[in-house]
Amino acid sequence: MLEVFIFSTLNGLVTGLLLFMLASGLTLIFSMMGVLNFAHASFYMLGAYFAYSISLHLGFWMGLIFAPLIVGILGAVVERFALRRVHAHGHVAELVFTFGLAFLIEEAVQFFWGPDTKNYQSPDILDFPLFTLFGQEFSAYRGFMIAISVGIFIGLYYVLTRSRIGIIIQAAITHPHTVANLGHNVPFIFMGVFGVGTALAGVAGVIAGPVLTTFPGMAVVLGSIVFVIVVIGGLGSLGGAFIASLLIGLLQSYAIASNVGMPDLLNLVGLEFSRDHPLTDLWTLTLPQIAPILPFLLLVLVLIFRPTGIAGKREQ
Question: Is residue 23 part of a domain?
Fold first, then answer.
């Protein structure tokens, strides 16, 4: 039992921190620009594909360096020449534009790389067990994923709350005219924020590609979960996104590792169905089967009892 709990916790941390890497860029873009980017997961997919192509010629580490840079530049170009013009027409136009952009990127990926799954591998230098516990191995690459994710959180938190750049960025949101009068290029700041946000999604794609496989539908798999994380954590809250990511990662990991059936869960709340009840099919469900919908159930509960999210603030 202890063995299952420890490895479920470790796997949940890996999943949760991977989700945070993806959600951090979306949170940054929304908190700084007020843009809810539906194409964010598509930039995550581009990161994986660019890294795969680069790794074929230059190795994994060059892919880790250059793929996010390419994705970030593409994101900045999208903001400068398309999203900036759409932004003037309101949030609905932004949502429609980014929703269409997601489809465009998916079609482009299939056109250039094909519809098949790519054999994107983790680096050989990290192909060894970091430690062995209860006869099970925890890979060094998963430890590397945890380290990168924690580093991104610490770095973003420091830049946004302790550095001069962070102060300028936050001031540009609330007082753009004042910041412009002080000699700062506000449109360039927003373009940079969008580029950095998409680059963070690219980093997540580079790291996740070898583990979650690189295929054209990988953006769809995690795209909805990312928005769930942002809402549960509180729109625009980096700390909230971090907590929500870990919560969802651990929740799903524990659910998958458990051997609890629906009768056990119903009995906990004092419910019991007879075998001839119309809802008797519930008796055949187990917790691992409903694990994929647990984040959405959590979202419903958060919206009912705390609509602003874990760390969100109600707008005045």
Answer: yes
User: Which letter, b or e, does each residue of 194-226 get, where b requires 16 or more Cβ atoms within 10 Å of its Cβ?
Assistant: bbbbbbbbbbbbbbbbbbbebbbebbeebbebb
Return left, alpha or beta for 285; rule: phi > 0 is left, psi -120 to 50 is alpha, else beta.
beta
What sign does the dihedral 77-82-87-91 (CA atoms) show?
negative
> pTM for this one?
0.88
Q: Is residue 131 part of a domain?
A: yes
Give the distance from CA 247 to its chain's centroid: 13
Question: Facing residues of 129 across strands?
Answer: 139
DSSP for residue 236 = T
* In a domain? residue 41: yes
Number of domains in the chain: 1
Cα gap 100→97, rounded to integer Å: 5
Q: Quick one: angle between helices 140-162 and 2-33, nearest 10? A: 30
With bands split at pLDDT 50, 70 and 90, how would you rate the model's confidence at 270? low
Give which of 160, 195, 190, 165 is closest to 176, Cα–Cα: 190
The range of the structural domain enclosing residue 203 comes to 2-217
Beta pairing partners, 131: 138
Dig out the tokens for 160 from the structure: 């946004």
Q: Which of 29-43, 55-69, 105-119, 197-211 has the lowest mean pLDDT?
A: 29-43
- Identify which of 4-13, 96-105, 259-268, 285-294 has the greatest average pLDDT: 96-105
Tokens of 1: 């039992």
CA atoms within 13 A on the CB side of 93: 9
How far is Cα 62 from Cα 206, in angstroms, rounded to an integer?
11
Within 10 angstroms of residue 29's Cβ, the number of other Cβ atoms is 27
pLDDT value for 278: 57
Within a domain: 280: no
